[in-house]
Amino acid sequence: MKYSQVSILVPIYNVSPFIERCAHSLFSQTYQDIEYVFVDDCTPDNSMERLAKVIERYPQRKEQVKIIQHTNNKGIGATRNTLLDNACRQYFLFIDSDDWIEPDMIELLYNKAKETQADITVCDFFEELRNKNVIVTDVVFDDIDKNRYNIISATETRPCLWNKLIKRDLYNLCSCIPVDLNYGEDKCIAIQLYFHANKIAKVNKPLYHYVKYNVGSITAKDRSRKYFKNALQYWNFLSDFLQKQDTKYIEKLDLEKVKHKASLMISTNSYSLRKEYAKMFYEEETIYFSQLKHGKWIITFLIRHRLFVLAQIYHYGVVLLNRFSN
């Protein structure tokens, strides 16, 4: 048997309506030498049964498939670790199991990686909305500093993992993220990878379909206390990482902390959470308050002055405005 050069890593949890489409797109790749690793994080639905049915339709792929089952639900952070622990190939690619990919995605990314000797190879992607899709460009700069600044701010460079083919040796340089970090764990990995990479290449074509309408996904859930705790974990992890790498990026990180706090304060429906986390990133907020855009400036001003009732009213105003504008 010829060993593959690419591992596709797929976490499975509560994706029954989507997993078959995802699996078909993975097994019908034009690139043949692929190792597939799926981790069942104790999914409560019939996702695994649906996956098994698809596997039966691709007998030529069956020997390339590994399925690992967690004995208890561990969350996406721990699941990513399990996937990587069971991946054996030179390159790997994370795929979210409610998404799907173009038939030539692996072939194009792998060929570009070999051609350019890149540590990371990136492609553009489709954002799949309910009634349309939008092409999103993931910019790769020739200048390494620009790549690093942009992946911290998530402006032109996208800190997601699923549109990036990554050299396994590069990942081995990264620090382990907390296993209980289930929001932003992909960004923690992506930012570390960009700081360790010597070469990042790009295939100028959208090859990944990112589903934005799955209301059951982690990113679609309400801004709960767990989300706020994870936000603190996320930013503290990145602060520690950048302190060890190069402190010139800390200023950029601190501005993004303040922006993220404002977004959390706008989006949460909880009066008590706004009050509990009012002092989060307070020093950074003092420095960068004037750089916030209008809506984030308002919510930050209200929280800083402990005007929580007015902040709640502002939240409902934003919700109504968004509802009528859609």
Outline the fold blueprint.
Layout: E1 6-12, H1 19-27, E2 34-40, H2 47-56, E3 65-69, H3 76-85, E4 91-94, E5 100-101, H4 105-116, E6 120-128, E7 133-136, H5 144-153, E8 164-167, H6 168-171, H7 185-196, E9 200-211, H8 225-245, H9 250-267, H10 271-276, H11 282-288, H12 294-304, H13 308-325
Parallel strand pairs: 1-2, 1-4, 2-3, 6-9
Antiparallel strand pairs: 4-8, 5-9, 6-7, 6-8
Q: If you average the pLDDT, what whole number results?
A: 91
What is the succession of H and E elements?
Answer: EHEHEHEEHEEHEHHEHHHHHH
Mass-distribution shape: globular
Q: Provide the number of structural domains.
A: 2
| Major sheet characteristics | 9 strands, mixed
Secondary structure: number of strands = 9
From the 3D coordinates, which CATH architecture of the largest domain would you assign?
Alpha-Beta Complex
Task: Output the number of helix runs.
Answer: 13
Low-confidence regions: 218-222
Supply Rg.
Answer: 21 Å
First and last CA, distance: 53 Å
CATH fold group of the largest domain: Spore Coat Polysaccharide Biosynthesis Protein SpsA, Chain A
**Alpha-beta classification:** alpha/beta
Percent helix? 40-55%
Name of the CATH homologous superfamily of the largest domain: Spore Coat Polysaccharide Biosynthesis Protein SpsA, Chain A
- For this structure, what is the CATH class of the largest domain? Alpha Beta
Strand content: 15-25%
